[in-house]
Amino acid sequence: MSLPPGFIEELRSRLSLAQVIGRKVSWDNRKSNPGKGDYWAPCPFHQEKTASFHVDDAKGFYYCFGCHAKGDAVTFVRETENLDFIEAIRLLAGEAGMQMPERDPEAAKRAEAGRALADVMELAVQFYRLQLRAGAGQVARDYLATRDMPEAVQDRFEIGWAPDTRQALWSHLQEKSVPEAQIIEAGLCVRPEDGGQPFDRFRGRVMFPIRDARGRCIAFGGRSLDPNARAKYLNSPDTPLFDKGRTLFNIGPARAAAGKAQALIVAEGYMDVIALAKAGFDHAVAPLGTAVTEDQLRMLWRMADEPVIALDGDAAGLRAAMRLIPLALPLLTAGKSLRFCLLPEGQDPDDLLRAGGADAMQAVLATARPMVDLLWQQATEGKEFDSPERRAALDAALRQTIGTITDKSIRDHYSAEIRSRRADLFRPKSAQGGGGWRNDWRGGASGGRRGGDRRGTGFGPVQPSTKSSALAQGNAPDQEARIRESAILMACLNHPALAEKHEAALETLPFACPDLAVFRDALLSELADTPDRPQQDLEPSLAARLGYDPREKLMAVGHVRISRHLRPDATRDFVESTLLEDIAKHQATLGAHAEIRDAEAEMAGVTDEGVTWRLQQAVAARDQANRQASEVDAGDDQTDAAMKKALQDMIDRQIWVKKKR
């Protein structure tokens, strides 16, 4: 059976050799480096205890230093499954989602025709290269000089010139005895509808050969120098050699460079790729005049785990990034994703490299953001969520988008990340470090997580200017917060239906203890995955997600062990009323602490010994009130109100200002 040209190459590009071989061996984690596509294992072809079997996933080859077995994915499947060549191809094609060609006696003829077309394309490359050096190519040489493309760059990318005449290439190929049908089929010339003489497709354009992974010229891209041209850039049409949705410009050189750099840049067009390569970024590719396709995504992931999508710093660049997200989400697998970087507004890679050089480009690439950032930005930027209906619409849209992720583990992580960002966005403003106790539902790109601290909880790090104040030296609220947060979580663990019922309140409730915040997120994620789950089914899966026994962790807090509403025999109504009361108390306490921090910030730098003494007394009074309230398990609302009133009274009297005698 004859396979179409390029079929095996396409098969290899879609498969990961490490995944194919990984079904048969156990990788040596000490010697393997998955990030570089470098894997080691005991050889499956001979008995050994040491890992002498090496897989180079980037190149798609394996070699055993013991028995000297070597080959690619097809060889490995043939040897391990005892299959013939076509059977091995059929098995791998099924894994790669490729349709095996039907047995066709004409396949050999088509393969030969494909090789003939590739030969015609090479004749065109030579013709365009010669025209660039000829007198008529001066206009093209002048243009390339303005783009800072010296002859070495022109030679490297085989840049040429298509004369602005109707039949220059046609006449040249006819003189070379190339059949008319082949010239048309290769997409080099166009036959007019009226049946007249064919004419050149590319005229008055700087020409860029497009080569496949095997190095064959399969198409051209042409850049017009006429400002009135109908299309600035023109690519070859789809032909037996060229499918623009399954081709990337510069894929051959970039694939080799990406293995060395352990990175891959995806630019918008071939001019961007050339500018990047000229500056030393050889690991760059570009789609060909269309949005990135599913096939191109798989090709990118074959070369790098997290390709960086580098887009022009304009609205069109951002729209291109947003269009790529829904395509990529269903295809994500562990370790395979995308990152995005937007260049400064109004600049493309060439502009940036001219202005700041390679260092400026590297600095922008270093800011590449994960895809979840753009997903969140797309859902929230420029919108206001000042009503329950708008917030519900946001939830529905995000839930639908994340639901397209087929990998459950990745979907869970996306859900947890979006849940965290949503909680930050919907958190009351004073709990985010702002003044007052007013809700702010305005979204935006900055609505995500803020660094690695927990300022949004109301228990974040004290500002440096206030570390020596009395309030900063008072008893930290984390202990009381841990007690209350543990009680809230235990009530939810005992009654999952209550956690589902009050999901919105739990999501937006700031947690002071990072470990308990992770607990809360994991609990809500489990409930979201399987609604109405019984308690006996919830705890094992939650323990697997957290890595420890959730009940044991919460029961370590004494208050949880003795609270009546957390006993197994407590009625649901009693548990629910106490749970809501605890949530309300927690919010009130957070508000009080936030106001204290705001007051500290306002008074920083103007305090004296008098105010220090007064604030110490205030802290002592607060702690005493809290202890008394805890002992009777009541009166927290009154305590918080009294504390806030006393603090406001001190502020109103400006006790930090020395009074004149």
Automatic annotation (TrEMBL):
It comes from the Bacteria. Residues 262-344 form the Toprim domain. CDD domains: TOPRIM_DnaG_primases. Residues 463-472 have a biased composition (Polar residues). It catalyses: ssDNA + n NTP = ssDNA/pppN(pN)n-1 hybrid + (n-1) diphosphate. GO terms for cellular component: cytoplasm; DNA-directed RNA polymerase complex; primosome complex. PROSITE patterns: TOPRIM. Its EC number is 2.7.7.101. A zinc finger (CHC2-type) spans 43-67. One of its GO terms (biological process) is DNA replication, synthesis of primer. Keywords: DNA replication, DNA-binding, DNA-directed RNA polymerase, Magnesium, Metal-binding, Nucleotidyltransferase, Primosome, Transcription, Transferase, Zinc, Zinc-finger. Its cofactor is Zn(2+). Binds 1 zinc ion per monomer. Residues 427-478 are annotated as: Disordered. Gene3D superfamilies: 3.40.1360.10, DNA primase, catalytic core, N-terminal domain (3.90.980.10), Zinc finger, CHC2-type domain (3.90.580.10). HAMAP family: DNA_primase_DnaG. Monomer. Interacts with DnaB. Contains an N-terminal zinc-binding domain, a central core domain that contains the primase activity, and a C-terminal DnaB-binding domain. Belongs to the DnaG primase family. RNA polymerase that catalyzes the synthesis of short RNA molecules used as primers for DNA polymerase during DNA replication. This is DNA primase. It comes from Oceanomicrobium pacificus. The lineage of its organism: Bacteria, Pseudomonadati, Pseudomonadota, Alphaproteobacteria, Rhodobacterales. The gene is dnaG.
